[in-house]
Specification:
By secondary structure, the chain is α/β, with parallel strands linked by helices. Helix content is 35%, strand content 23%. It is built from 4 helices and 5 strands.
Length: 105
Amino acid sequence: MAEHNPTILIVDDESSIRETYRMILGPRYSYFYAENTNQAEKELTLNVFSLVLLDLNMPDRSGLALLPFIKEHNPDSSIIIVTGSGSYKASLEAIKFQVSGFIEK
């Protein structure tokens, strides 16, 4: 049986950030990208992800609004929120969805 690389969904509206994650994490993972939450929902219905790297400030709506959808369609995915403008309130909301990490850019 062939081994499959863990799959990561990178949800960020900045292409340079998406590419930076891919470069840092390296070739041992498979990557899917979404530049808004609508694209992310589409990917989450089509694929199973080991990890979702999620930006809070997205062009169409907050990344927090995507958390229930992630948990419904990929309940075993780990979620790490990476944001340039984190807040205490946002981190409390993320905890409700068992987010694995909350990191400021």
